[in-house]
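The instructor's notes for this session suggest beginning with a concrete chain rather than abstract definitions. Hand out the sequence below and ask the class to guess, before any prediction is shown, which regions might be ordered.
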Amino acid sequence: MNKEKVEDDAVEELLKMGLFKQKFCNNAKSNCENEKCVIRSRRRTANAKNRIISWRCPRSKCQTFYSLYEGTFFEQFKKPLFDILAIIKCWALELTISKTIQYLKF
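After discussion, reveal the predicted structure:
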């Protein structure tokens, strides 16, 4: 299972469902107010385990980024989207805590 592919597909579906709202840049200094942001992923370091998925202003002079989770149900979590969705899936299947932990270790 490719975590990144699953996570990317989940973001697309959540956008279609309206759980993530389109973000617009509000950086007046770069003169790109109301510029439609795009979703980008990055890692803090080359060796980082998890990716950070965020809204990013496409203008090269701006490059301001915003949390993908801001203003959504996912805002309260500090885990990658893949892990959050896996836990929700386990909860929906009524798995025990020990089975959920085994599932999440993959």
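Then share the key points. Residues 3-105 form one domain. The chain has one domain: 3-105.
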